[in-house]
Amino acid sequence: MVVNWIHTDEMEDVAGSLRHVVRAAQFVGADPQSYKWVLLAMHSALQGACVCHLTTTAAPIGAVSKRNAAEWLAYFEHSRADPELKPPQTHLMHLPGLLKAVRKPRSAGDGRNASGVKVSEIELNWLRRFHDDLRNQFVHFAPTGWSIEVSGVPELLKLVARIIEDIYDIGWAFRHQDAARRQELRTNIDALTKIEWPV
């Protein structure tokens, strides 16, 4: 048996999620079930971009819960004397918490952004419903039938694109990517706003 590997990280995951939004959107006219993959990839891209923005050089500090951050800080301190010490599990904040965090001034992992990423209360509530209702229902699909209004997906996608673009422009989140990868990321962020949706 041949064993294949791929290498990925949080930045590549955002890029892959953006590509998948663009790909999946091509099929929604012929296959409405493709909206699921548009929405899940959109959520993944937004959450990943927030994680990349918030994470400090002491990863995963910045994108994890306060309690988990304390566990990681204790681990970093005690692992100097005990190299056999096992690291704690990582408990990322959920999307609504990540969005609240990126809104704060100096929220980037290097603390240099004087202002936070612009996400209004109305937008935050919209994205919270997106996370709690749509994303969670799709990921943890119960045996039930339900109808989903998709007429708001283009506007939701524009909001997500704007937030990811702001994170991109701040500069911390994707700093380790080379110029070609950053350009591809920028191109795919722009592509999100140009998708032609069925009427």
Tags for this entry?
199 residues; mainly alpha; 7 helices; 55% helix
Provide the fold topology:
Elements (H helix, E strand, L loop, with lengths): L9 H16 L8 H21 L11 H13 L16 H8 L18 H19 L13 H18 L8 H14 L7
* Overall mean pLDDT: 95
Strands, total number: 0
Percentage beta strand: under 5%
What's the structural domain tally? 1
Flag low-confidence runs: none
Summary, kept brief:
Helices cover about 55% and strands about 0% of the residues. It has about 200 residues and is an all-alpha fold. It has one domain (about 30-190).
Descriptive account of the structure:
The structure is a single chain. The chain is built from seven helices and no strands. With 199 residues, the protein is mostly helical. It has one domain. Helix 2 packs across helix 5, helix 2 (34-54) runs parallel beside helix 6 (153-170) and helix 6 (153-170) runs antiparallel to helix 7 (179-192).
